[in-house]
Amino acid sequence: MIKEKVTIKNSAGLHARPSAQLVKLASKFKSDFYIHSYGYRVNGKSILGVMTLAAESGAELELELEGPDEEEALKAIKEAIENKFGMDEE
Amino acid sequence: MPFKPHDPIPRKDKISVDYLVDKLKERVNIKIESCAAENCSTDKFITEADLHRPGLALAGYIDLFTYQRIQIVGNTETQFLSHMGDDKQLESFRNLTQFDIPVIFLTDGNELPEPLLEEARKAGIPVFSTPLETTRFMYLLRDFMEDQFAVQTMVHGSMMDVYGIGILVAGRSGIGKSEVALDLVERGHRLVADDVVMLTKKNNVLMSSATEMSKHFMEIRGLGIVDVMSMFGIRSIRYQKRLEVVLELTLWDEAQEVERTGLNHDSVNILDLDIPLIHLPITPGKNITVIAEVIAMNYLLKHYGYDPAKAFQERIKTSIGDKAKGGDMTPKRAIEYFEGDIE
Q1: Of B69, B80, B263, B290, whose CA is between 20 and 30 Å from B215?
Q2: Nearest chain B residue (CA) to A41
Q3: Is the Cβ pair B217, A27 closer than 8 Å?
Q4: How many other CB atoms are there within 10 angstroms of residue B242's CB atom?
Q5: In whole angstroms, what is the distance from residue B213 CA to residue B199 CA?
Q6: pLDDT tens digits, one per residue of B125-181
Q7: Nearest CA to B167 among B270, B272, B241, B251?
Q8: Does residue B325 have an active-site annotation?
Q9: What is the pLDDT of residue A89?
Q10: In which region does residue B113 sit, left (phi positive, over 0), alpha (psi from -120 to 50) or beta (all else)?
């Protein structure tokens, strides 16, 4: 199991579209993916779970991955968060 | 991935006295009046669910005084104080006020003499009074506090009320939990939460609810987000339900052992409570919704004292016993004599 902290860069926070991107990306991997934030621990492969966090810009999330491809998954997810999910702010 | 609950999260670390009094008036319907230092109640915090009656502290024994708890002054304490002289009374009361007490409640309509209230004001300790009897008040307050400081955890799954039985449909992402929940809603059962389920331990029972954010929304893969309450109406949802059975869906795997009799019971430990766990491998043509209904009905039957697996077991034992006594060995029909089926 690996854990790492990341910060949300999108100025509008993790609203529906970036959440969907994150969930889609995470679902490509076999590893279990959980996100910790403000006492919440939600399944990162569930769109409702991720949206429940309502993570604002600058929110710190702790990613927890466990499974055969955890390293790759973490790398890909971190990259997507860094790149603001390929979204320029609306 | 086997079903496992997440780490417990305490619901709150502390609550302000102001919040406590407001909620007790509003939600618990207790009459409460302020006697002293009400303005201090926003800065006073309670960090424990337990209550304390400061009888011994008033008598002067303060070595083990749990001053950080809510202090309840009932008939005993009030009478103890009133039996003393005025100056001694104040001295005795100072045993309390020298500590950083969050709040004092006077129960059963008891009152404190003005000099003592003045002392509380000076120490910045809010004092409230209620006409409710001490034991009754303590019971209600304790129940409220237990809820405020309850341990909680979050699980991934769909929480349903099926025939009054709280079933949590669990399993890995994409296995079809939400679809089962939707099918159950369509058949008249009620949704508590989808995807993010909050479990709270209260009075040794696990209560489930949705989060404020995700309540009564559901994700159906390929469709997106749907709002169950708007779509199916108020009768299709519930705010809270006790968790009674966990139903874990798994993909069919030849090597996996599945329960065949129902005599062995598996369980999962959530917040130190054992909840019955049923592993259900899904195969083509298997109607999980109907199975969920059967699970609920079976649970109800067992609750009313009838366990089908045990009943069958008994029947086998009797039959084996009969044979051992030299009874009839030939296969027996369920009905002794067929009357003509004439229509």
Answers
A1: B290
A2: B154
A3: no
A4: 14
A5: 15
A6: 999 999 999 999 999 999 999 888 888 888 899 999 999 999 999 998 888 899 999
A7: B241
A8: no
A9: 56
A10: beta
| Nearest Cβ partner for B196 among A27, A39, A42 | A42
Q: Which residues of B touch A52 (CB under 8 A)?
A: 195-196, 211, 213-214
Amino acid present at A34: Y
Q: What is the pLDDT of residues B67-98, one digit of tens each?
A: 999 999 999 999 999 888 888 899 999 999 99
Give the gap in angstroms from C-alpha B181 to the nearest C-alpha of chain A: 15
Is position B274 annotated as part of the catalytic site?
A: no
DSSP symbols for B35-53: EE-GGGTTT-EE--S-EE-
- Return d(Cα B341, Cα A28) in angstroms, integer: 61
Q: Which residues of A touch B225 (CB under 8 A)?
A: 16, 47-48
Answer yes or no: B189 catalytic: no
- For residue B173, which of A1, A51, A52, A24 has the smallest C-alpha distance? A24
Count Cβ–Cβ pairs < 8 Å, chain A vs chain B: 50
DSSP label at residue B72: E
In chain A, count of helices (H) and strands (E)? Answer: 3, 4
Look at residue B2 in the predicted model and tell me its pLDDT.
59
End-to-end CA distance of chain A: 36
